[in-house]
Structures are given as structure tokens and as C-alpha cells.
Amino acid sequence: MTAIIETLAIAAISGIAVPIFQSIWETGGKALDFIGKGVNEQTRQLIFSASQQYATNYTERHGTLKVLGMREPVNLESVYTTVRVLDEESLRQFESLEDREENFRQGRHRRFTPNETQAQRGIDIAKLQQYLIILGAPGAGKSTFLKRVGLEALKGQEGEFEFSCIPIFIELKRFDSADVSLEDFITKEFEISGFPTAENFTRSALEQGKLLILLDGLDEVPSENLNPLMGQIQDFVDRYADNRYIISCRTEAVRSSLSRFTDVVIGDFDDGQIEEFIQHWFSSDRDREAETAQKCWQLLQKPKNAAAKELAHTPLLLTFLCRVYDRSQNFPNNRSVLYRKALRILLEEWASEKRIQLDEIYQGLHAEAEEILLSEIAYQGFTNDRFFFSKRELVEPIKTFLTDNLNAPQNLDGESILNAIVIQQGIIVKRAEDVYSFSHVTLQEYLAAQYISDNDLIEKITNAHLKEMHWQEVFVLIAGLMRGGADRLLLWMEREADRFLETPEGQTPRSLLEWSDRITTDIESKYEPTAKRAIAIALALALTPARHLAEALAPALTRLLTEALIDVEDNRAALELAQRLQQLEIFQGEAIATLIEKLQGMGDRSTEGETFNQHLQHCFLEAFALTPELMCLSETEIQVFKNYLYANQSIVRCKQAAVRVSPQTWTEIESRMLRVSK
Predict the structure, then answer these.
(1) Are the C-beta atoms of 388 and 435 separated by less than 8 Å?
(2) Which of 361, 371, 440, 523 could form a disulfide with 420 if both were Cys (CB 3.0 to 4.6 A apart)?
(3) Which domain holds residue 587?
(4) Which H or E run includes 86?
């Protein structure tokens, strides 16, 4: 780390520090009183030493990253990923709550921010705007961005900032009284680095517009000091208008009353930034040799990790995920543990690490109570099929929670609590005027699952929501929360899945299940009976208009069937498929033998009134005794079968995610899976 700091310091001195510091001395009026006219060699050396010390101090204090209990800091530049910022207009393009809800449901991603928003590089905006406010949720990387801009300024012409400015990084949370002044704070920074007459030097630098003033965390100022500080900042900027200013603040914390300033919002990481960050994080020689970064990124890309990847769009939580992966080279099967930790980071750890003094609103509402409150809101959102809320829809349950809980502080105001949650934690985010949502779908899912587990609502939600696809992650998380065992959940899910087939529309799907059981029974194979039935059903569905359902059961087989049975000019592909099915030893031998015989005698010709493909499909249907009645599923029957297969997929995922499942319970469920219940 020392070598890194020295390298940056040398770059700073050769690039910007000495020329700017010297220019201030030479034109600084009173700053030269103690040395008379001109700047001699001794003074130049003094400037050199002080500027070197300033660059070293800045790099030591602001050039490293140490968060979430890391034992050792990492070089900020080694993990930094270019920040993207969004203008307010692009964020407001879907104004109404209804539009937001509709836009989210039509999207194919799990994120609440529209994909169409236009983003610019943060450093480009910082160069373009002399007075800039960077807004963003907790953990979005605002402080890191300000520090990085300062590092670029220190590099002078070799850096990306391009302006000859001395960076001054100021944590505004340190303004814990109305008596602290910005000018005094800046003077102190120069005194620490060894500048004589630092007060005069500061005044000269400000008057000449030589400073880049980075004011971090406007929202972190104690509320009683905020208005006086806002007034001081405004006066200061008006007085020293030639300098450059960047202020960071959590979104919605302060709707800027500062004139001159342009507001932009720091955007979530996109996939490219996530991958780049992971590459930077795992960049040691050992990690490069083991290809750790590639393996971590590939694992995040898997569908089973879609919810975890959603968290990765926030830099703070991506750091958390990298640390989790670094410890075990994997992500835990029990996602509930992962998401609980992520929630706790936002609820209390991040504020504690940054030494932020929370509003008085939190003095009576501890994290455990707040988590219960948020879980109620998340659950009601899911049961009402809602992801976006108006302010009233959030304030009312907060009021109810306070009223109905004898141990909750009765002096708190519902709207104040909501504002504090939005500003200080970012678990709930304001998306547009009177439009709110959870910051991540994953957190809403986890909190809803927690509410269901805490209040023993498993039977109720299984009966009502098992077939709804956006509930699957909630069911998986419930399984992970049931530390006493998830047997009861799995049995309820199995019972509800069987009910899908007890309707008139479920009769043909039942018949297909009976066929799959019959054609795979008594066959010695390396596959479990459930797997053999799944492959048989996938084969049957691939020959029907419901081919898309087969993909979920046996993707590789479905692709083979598609290649073999769609738009082929001869029967070679189909014959190869039949031979591969024979090698699997899943189906009764007579069926495969009949199919191969038919295909070998078929040639490359069509029969009268049939296309070649139709004739080919008939060969498969006849060989496997699939009657027209079984194959002609109506749209309603396809939907029923889809619900049934989806429910069974959910059962398997819940079993995998559970902390504990009785071997006997799972053996019994598995023996009945994809079979008609007796």
C-alpha cells in the first residue's frame, strides 16, 4: 500500500500539485508577506514538500476502500468501476404508479429502474458541470465517486478530470455544530500538510478558483444543523464562485434549495459494470490463476442466482457478495441467510460503519421492530400483487403498526418514519412523485417470506399463490427460514399441486402422467423413477403444441427433439435421436425397438396427404402409444399442466433451499412426484 501511495504522490506532484500550489503562492498577496518579493528556491522546496505531503495525505485517507468489516483496505482505483449517472428527466419518464407497475411487469428483468434510461459517465458530468449534486441511495457509490474524482484531479494532465484544481474532500457529518465553517475546515487540511500561513493560502486558493471542493454526505448532517449548513454552503459558493463543487446526498434527502447546482442521480451498476467490478476484486495472481472472477461472474449468471444478482446492481451489496464468494468460492444454497445479511447491512451496519448519527426517529424504533414493520408491508404488497406504493399506502400500515404494538414508541409519526427509512437506509425508495417501492425485488421477497414464516401462513399462501410465478422466490425463501424443517411446506405444496389435476381440465394431463409412469415402469436405469417420468413427459410434450413446457423438464432432450422433428429433410436426425433414447434405458424396450424399425423403413419420403415432418411425428406417436386424445391438449389443459409442472419445480427448489428436510418425507414426496395420486 505504501508503494501505491508513493506512486500516486509522485504523479500528483509532477502533474498538478506543485504548479497549482506555486501559482497560488506567486499571486496570493498576503500569502507572500513573510517572504517578500518572488519565490526563492527554499520556498519552492517548501511548496514541493507541503504539496507532496498533501497528495500523500489525500491518497492515504481517500484512496483506499475498507467496508463491511474488511480486515485490510483495498486500493480504491484497483476496484473502481466507472460510475454512470442519470438525469432526473430520464428517471421520471414513467410518472404514475400505474405506469411504473405496468412497465415493471412487462420487463424481463427483476429491477425497478427502467432499462431505457440514458446514462452518462460520472466523470464526464463532473467536467461539464461546475456545480454538481450527486444523488443516490445508500451504498450506491457516491462517496467513492467523489474520492475518485479527487484522485483524478491530483493527477493533473494525466488524469481524467482535466481541470487544474486541488481536491478538498470534506465529510459533512463532521459538521456537528453550527460553529464549524467550511473555510476553517479547508484551512485545517492545509495546516496538517505543513503549509505556513495556511489561512492566507486558503483564502488565496479560494479567490483564484483553484479548489475542487467535494462535500460528501449532505444527508448525514444532524438534522438540527442541516439548515444552517445549507445556508453556509450557499453563501460560501456565492462568495467563491470560481471554484468547482460536487456535493453527494442520498436521493430525496434534500430537494436542493442550493442555487447554481445541477442534480443528477447515480445509476445502478449494469451487467458490464458488475463483471468489471468482480474482475477488479479478484485480481490477485492467485485469483487470476484460479480464474476466480470468471467463475464468480458465471455463477451469478445462472437462473437460480437471479435474485442474488439483483443485489449486485448496488455497489455496496456487490462488495458484500464478492466477500461471500471469496470465503467459500460459492453462494449459499440457503438464500435466506444471504438476504438477511444484506438487509441487516442496510438496516444498521452501513450507518454504523460510516458513523452516521441516525435521526431521533430511530431512538425508539430498533432494527428488529423495523424489520417486522417492513415485512408486513412487503407481504401486503405481494398478496395484493403490488410492487409500487403511494405514500398513503405506506404511511397507513406504519401508523397501524405503531397503534397495534404496545411496545412500539407511540410518540413517532408515520410519515416521519417513512421519510427516515427512505433517506437513511434506502430499503424503500422514492421512484417518482408519490411512487415508492422496495429498493430490490429480492428484499421485498425476503421480507414477505419472513412475515409468512413468523405468522404461520404457509397453508394460506400455498392454497392461494402456488401457481403464481412471481411467488416462487418467496416459497424458496420460506423453506430457508424454517429452521425446524420444511416438511410441512413441501407437503402442502404437493397437495395443492395435485389439486390442479382434480378439475375437468386436468384429466388429459392426468392421463399423460399415467402414460409416463406406465412406459418407464420396471426399466433398470441409472436414472431415478422421477427423472425417467420427467423425460417421458418432456418427450410427449415436445410432440404437442405445448413444446415450451418440455423445456423446463428436460432442456437438452427438448433441443434434440426440436432439431430432429422440425424442418428436417431426411430422417437421419430422428434415427440418431431414437438410438440415443435407447442408450438412456428409460423407456420400455418394445417402444424404442418399434420406433427404430419404423424410422429405418421410412426412407426420405412423405406419405400421401402428409408432409415428411408430420409422418415423422406419427412414427414417434405410434411407437410410444401416444393416442390423439392424449396429444390434443386445449389451451386450458396446457395451462393446468403448466401450473402442475411449475408447482413441482417449486417443490424441488424449496427442498434444495431448506435448512432441514426429513429423509422419509422427501422419499415419499419424490416417489409420488409426476404421478397420479392414488
Answers:
(1) yes
(2) 361
(3) 501-672
(4) strand 84-87
Task: Give residue for cell 424454517.
Answer: 482
Q: Which three cell numbers stand for residue 315?
A: 455497489
CB 246 within 8 A of CB 287: no
In sequence order, which ranges of 251-305 are alpha helices (DSSP H)? 271-281, 285-290, 292-301
**In this structure, are residues 319 and 141 in contact, taking their beta carbons and an 8 Å threshold?**
no
Q: What is the DSSP annotation of 217-251?
A: -GGGS-HHHHHHHHHHHHHHHHHTTTSEEEEEEET
CATH number at residue 53: 3.40.50
Total structural domains within the chain: 2
Domain boundary among 247, 266, 285: 266
CB contact at 8 A, 252 and 91:
no
Distance (Å, rounded) from C-alpha 157 to C-alpha 159? Answer: 5
d(CA 578, CA 238): 81
Specify the higher pLDDT residue, 544 or 36. Answer: 544
The answer as to whether 233 is a domain residue is yes
Whole-number pLDDT of residue 325: 93
The answer to whether the CB of 310 falls within 8 A of the CB of 442 is yes
Residue 509: is its pLDDT beyond 80?
A: yes
**Final residue belonging to a domain, choices 266, 299, 326:** 266
pLDDT of residue 35: 37
C-alpha distances out from residue 614 to 265, 359, 566, 668, Å:
57, 71, 9, 40
Q: What is the pLDDT of residues 382-397, one digit of tens each?
A: 999 999 999 999 999 9
CB atoms < 10 A from the CB of 446, how many? 29
Could you give the CA distance from residue 328 to residue 471 in angstroms, rounded to a whole number?
A: 29
114 touches 289 (CB < 8 A): no
Amino acid 401: pLDDT: 87
Q: If phi over 0 gives left and psi between -120 and 50 gives alpha, with beta otherwise, what is residue 528?
A: beta
Band (228; pLDDT cuts 50, 70, 90): confident
In a domain, 376, yes or no: no
pTM: predicted TM-score of the whole model, two decimal places: 0.83
489 contacts 475 by C-beta, under 8 angstroms: yes
The grid coordinates listed for 46 are 517548501
* Residue 379, domain member (yes or no): no
User: Which residues, other chains included, contact 512 with Cβ-Cβ below 8 Å and sequence gap of 6+?
Assistant: 537, 540, 630, 641
